[in-house]
Amino acid sequence: MTDPTAAAAFESRYLRDVLGNFPTSVVAVTTIDDDDGAPVGMVVGSFTSVSLDPPLVSFLVDRSSSTLPKVLQAGRFCANALAADQEWLCRQMARKGVDRFDGVAWTRSDHDNPILGGVVAWVDCTIEKTVELGDHFLVVGRIGDLTVESSVKGPLLFFRGGYGDYRSTAQLLLDSHLGR
């Protein structure tokens, strides 16, 4: 039987290095700041489906996030699945102390959340529950609306500390046939 406290003995860097072998999608979580009406956003690599009935999704965010309080205050968010060609947007949404929406095309969802231009898909939610877990918060959202914006674009992925994309076997064969 493994000692449940043994995980705490791992050094943070080693833990990150090993867990970095699990690829994650890159998602920009967006809302509108209730105080000034400005769009706000942050990047998460932990977005997942929770339940089909009721329709729930979730993401994890570090406790030190300065954006999370704004999302919680708004009580709603849009999860935007970034496309493989949007690494620049990911980096911009992750920066502190800048206007994360500078030069970014977006529209408002029916729930008044920013839907980013050029994304693969988006899911518009109201916050159902927030749970404190270790050094993160788990935010669970009830889906109000969702759509696939592009069935052609691949998602931006985070893997082993870097960004990449996903191409299906069919796409790889086609690219090979076309000499790409």
From the structure above, extract its key features.
single chain; 180 residues; alpha+beta; three-stranded antiparallel sheet; globular
By secondary-structure content and strand pairing, the structural class works out as alpha+beta
**Number of DSSP helical runs:** 4
Report the sheet with the most strands, covering strand number, pairing sense and barrel closure: 7 strands, antiparallel
| Helical residues, percent | 10-25%
The tally of beta strands, per DSSP, is 12
Q: Termini, distance in Å?
A: 51 Å
Side-by-side strand order of the widest sheet: 3-2-6-9-10-5-4
Beta-strand percent range: 35-45%
Can you write the helix and strand succession as a string?
HEEEEEHEHEEEEEEH
| General form | globular
General description of the model:
The protein has helices at residues 12-19, 68-74, 87-94, 169-177, and strands at residues 24-25, 27-32, 39-44, 48-51, 56-62, 76-81, 106-108, 114-116, 121-133, 136-148, 156-159, 162-165. It has 4 helices and 12 strands. The relative contact order is 0.19. The protein is globular, with a radius of gyration of 18 Å. By secondary structure, the protein is an alpha+beta fold. The chain has a 7-stranded antiparallel β-sheet with strand order 3-2-6-9-10-5-4. A 3-stranded antiparallel β-sheet has the order 1-11-12, with no helix packed on it.
